């Protein structure tokens, strides 16, 4: 199904006429932000647009449609297939997975469990529909630098927000799983905590992550890595957005089992990466054989550098 059709299907039938121009933005479309009694905002290639009541795109906020609570509620119910209860677990984590591989962030009134953890979110007042993009072949220029003698190195992708780290990770996973000019295909285990890598809907990946890939969707990284090791025996383990000592401890267990690791972390530079305290055990132990540093040129991400364990630059501007 084409992206435009998948975007249109996010909305109830009686509202779809309003969203044809937005869906027609295709691969340029990044986010649709819906807020109760606020203007509808569209983000495409880093630019902000608004939607007027007739469904036309405009740059003038004075002409923007204000979304009513009822309309927001109807969109939410449609995305949840008219069963909010079935999505309660996902909503407690602040997002939902929608058909087509889209992730829908939510905000509203939080309901807490007795222990202080989040039970659910009600009176939802904001939706952020993040449009899933695949960039098949994006990993091709960098892939030869990630292998040594036919063996995949442990790889850490470093990137500021919005520079394509998840997109690049997804394509590396696909090419490692399917096989490439550097090595035959390998079994890959993906712990997709936020449903952004594989874009699973009801457990089935909507994004192409390769034919030898097993995905554990919506599971915390540390626990998920251990589960995949026990159940699926992957040769390569992939996770997005390392951020805690618990993540690092789980990765260390994965490495003891002989798996290669593909991971990402937020950061704006090599120097910032070296200052991240929770990563120090991995950096000091030279665990990662390759570091891929991403940046942005205009509306597209680029591989600025590939570095070795000592921080030496192996390649630039890929």
TrEMBL record:
Residues 151-299 form the AAA+ ATPase domain. Coiled coil: none annotated. Signal peptide: none annotated. This is Stage III sporulation protein AA. InterPro entries: AAA+_ATPase, P-loop_NTPase, Spore_III_AA, Spore_III_AA_AAA+_ATPase. It comes from the Bacteria. Keywords: ATP-binding, Nucleotide-binding. The keyword Transcription regulation does not apply. It holds the Pfam family Spore_III_AA. PANTHER family: KINASE-RELATED, P-LOOP CONTAINING NUCLEOSIDE TRIPHOSPHATE HYDROLASES SUPERFAMILY PROTEIN. It comes from Candidatus Eisenbergiella merdigallinarum. GO terms for molecular function: ATP binding.
């Amino acid at each position: 199904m084409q992206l435009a059709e998948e975007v249109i299907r996010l909305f109830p039938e009686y509202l779809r006429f309003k969203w044809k121009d937005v869906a027609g933005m295709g691969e340029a479309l990044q986010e649709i932000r819906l807020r109760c009694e606020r203007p509808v905002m569209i983000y495409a290639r880093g630019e902000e647009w608004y939607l007027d009541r007739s469904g036309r795109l405009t740059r003038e906020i004075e002409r923007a449609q204000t979304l009513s609570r009822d309309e927001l509620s109807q969109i939410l119910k449609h995305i949840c297939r008219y069963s909010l209860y079935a999505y309660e677990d996902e909503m407690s984590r602040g997002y939902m997975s929608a058909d087509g591989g889209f992730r829908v962030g939510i905000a509203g009134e939080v309901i807490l469990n007795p222990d202080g953890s989040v039970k659910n979110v009600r009176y939802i007042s904001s939706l952020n529909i993040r449009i899933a993009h695949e960039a098949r072949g994006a990993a091709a220029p960098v892939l030869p630098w990630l292998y040594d003698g036919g063996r995949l190195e442990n790889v850490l992708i470093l990137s500021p927000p919005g520079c394509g780290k998840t997109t690049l990770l997804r394509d590396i996973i696909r090419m490692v799983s399917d096989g490439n000019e550097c090595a035959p295909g390998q079994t890959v285990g993906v712990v997709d905590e936020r449903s952004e890598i594989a874009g699973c809907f009801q457990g089935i990946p909507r994004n192409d992550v390769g034919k030898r890939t097993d995905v554990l969707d919506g599971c915390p990284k540390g626990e998920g890595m251990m589960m995949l090791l026990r159940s699926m025996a992957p040769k390569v383990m992939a996770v997005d957005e390392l951020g805690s000592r618990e993540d690092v401890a789980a990765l260390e267990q994965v490495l003891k089992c002989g798996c290669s690791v593909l991971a990402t972390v937020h950061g704006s530079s090599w120097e910032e990466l070296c200052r991240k305290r929770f990563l120090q055990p991995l950096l000091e132990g030279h665990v990662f054989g390759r570091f891929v540093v991403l940046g942005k040129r205009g509306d597209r991400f680029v591989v600025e550098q590939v570095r070795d364990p000592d921080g030496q630059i192996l390649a630039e501007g890929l």
